[in-house]
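Quick one:
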Amino acid sequence: MKTLPCLTEEELWSYLTGMTKTDAREAIELHVAQCEQCFQTLTSLDFVSVAKESPDEAALIETIYQPTINAALALAANTTTLPTPATAWWRLEWLTALWVNHRFAFAGAMAMVVIAITIGFFSWNSFFTEDADLARGLLALKQATNSTRPHELRISGLAYAQFANVRGNLSDADMSKLEGARAALMTAVAKNPTPTTRHIYGQVLLASNEYDKAIEQLQQATQSAPQNIEILIDLATAQAQKGDWTVALAHLNRALTIDNHNTTALFNRAILHEWLKNETAATADWQSYLKLDANSQWAREAEQHLAELKKR
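Output:
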């Protein structure tokens, strides 16, 4: 089997979320078993900070990956000496030491396997398949919008990316990723139409400029989770992209009534006020935004908007 170089955090994340092909997964597992550096990286990935941008992603990580992550961290913390790349992972003495140090953890793991089999393989497999679709779609959405964002208005939970005010501002490669995300989320919603799956599916549709379909999913999501600010923000963005600016503004006002410190809602409302020629309200929102966020790349855009308003 081909020897791999050390893996990046993104490659390890793709491995954990089931996006890596079977043959590649085997190569990764063999490499991590022999590479102390990659083992330590795998067990120390900061999934919590990754999830901070999106409550939906945070919930997904908490329910699906966090138990595995906690177990891996506990194992890493109690490991006395890991084999170096030059020391074969199958060496008898290392395996013996591993069993002595972690026999209770292994026994617990075996008990969990027995319980899982007792509950029923098919229901267990279905549960993880549904959430794998959700994770795969979410990751593809983030990758597709990593370099350029599709709209001037922000989509909740996505990292900063510049907005190119041109038709078809996403590349063919990014659109291809969105197609993959769309397929994965369509499957996830069909299997388990929760507010979370509908929300992320709506985000993918929004990024793909399918505004009517996005609105349909986001409206159903907000009916089940009326206090979810991120869903309201994205519903407002979909309505605004259709030209329903006053409806969009109402959604953002509602979101800011729930949390008047939400920077994404403030950012988008400031832009909407500009579109509606309400320069006083736009100026107030940009100033409020910069009190909450003065250092990010989003803040640099806010400063540019504020400077332009002062010139008028």
